[in-house]
Amino acid sequence: MTGEPRKKYRPTRMCLGCHERLPAEELVRLQRKGEKVIVVEHRDMRVEGRSVYLCPKLGCIDKVIKRGEIVFKRSKYDKIIVRLEPRQSDRLRYAFAHAARRLRARLGVGPQD
């Protein structure tokens, strides 16, 4: 051993909108709850089930909402598709904007629209 400290492992996830890989703590997490999609704001909140991630740029949520559906993958061959209704899309955009604003403030990054 060279005596160098080991680097702490930081899980990376891919943004569903722009497909950029970033550390998980720099992304907003979207969680599937039945036929609804919720925004998970607190990292210490343990939520079971499948998730997707978005970077805090508002353009990424717009891309996802424009598609009209979110795909949660269970495995390479099995996926769950949640279709977004207009009312749910509006609620999701609002919750995402709030979570992204808080995340940018925590990271010390200015607005990235």
Describe this structure in words.
- The protein is built from two helices and seven strands.
- With 113 residues, the chain is α+β, with helices and mostly antiparallel strands.
- The chain has a three-stranded antiparallel beta sheet with strand order 4-3-5, covered by helices on one side. It has a two-stranded antiparallel ribbon with strand order 1-2. Strands 6-7 form a two-stranded antiparallel ribbon.
- Strand 6 and strand 7 form a beta hairpin.
- Helix 1 runs antiparallel to helix 2.
- The N and C termini lie far apart (45 Å).
Secondary-structure topology with pairs:
Blueprint (H helix, E strand, L loop, with lengths): L11 E3 L6 E3 L4 E6 L2 E5 L10 E4 L3 H10 L1 E5 L5 E5 L2 H22 L6
Antiparallel strand pairs: 1-2, 3-4, 3-5, 6-7
Helix pairs in contact: 1-2
